[in-house]
Design goal:
Blueprint (H helix, E strand, L loop, with lengths): L1 H21 L10 E5 L2 E8 L2 E7 L12 E8 L3 E9 L4 E5 L8 E9 L2 E10 L4
Antiparallel strand pairs: 1-2, 2-3, 3-6, 4-5, 4-7, 5-6, 7-8
Length: 130
């Protein structure tokens, strides 16, 4: 019985290490917040009325964003949901305009799309320089 318990604990530790290896623990290069969206690592940055999504691959290399698009559902002032379309903005960036006020932190759910369909979603909560 003791061997079984040790085996289960060891298996749990190995599984935990595997999960940690998949997570990207490094500072956001552009001062935003990083989330895994499908096979991509996406950093959301909000400055003023500009919202920018920087997209990297699994090896932290810039992804050509010219074929990507994104839709962000943002929690606006008064708990109202607003949708922001994000278009290619050169290099590995997608951007969109936030032309409405938000209360407190900037909260958004971003859906990233490739030519093959939706890559996934990321939920962001960050302080915005607005």
């Amino acid at each position: 019985m003791r061997r079984l318990q040790i085996g289960i604990v060891t298996l749990g530790l190995v599984a935990g290490l595997g999960t940690a290896a998949l997570a990207h623990d490094h500072p956001a290069a552009n001062g935003g917040q990083i989330k895994q969206i499908g096979p991509y690592e996406a950093e959301l940055v909000v400055k003023g009325s500009e919202m920018t999504l920087h997209v990297l691959d699994e090896q932290d290399r810039k992804v050509d964003a010219s074929t990507l698009s994104a839709t962000a559902v943002v929690l606006a002032k008064g708990n109202e949901q607003r949708t922001v379309e994000m278009k290619p903005a050169g290099d590995n960036r997608l951007s969109g305009k936030v032309d409405f006020p938000v209360d407190g932190k900037f909260r958004a759910t971003v859906s990233l799309k490739t030519p093959k369909g939706e890559a996934g979603k990321g939920r962001y909560t960050l302080d915005a320089s607005r």
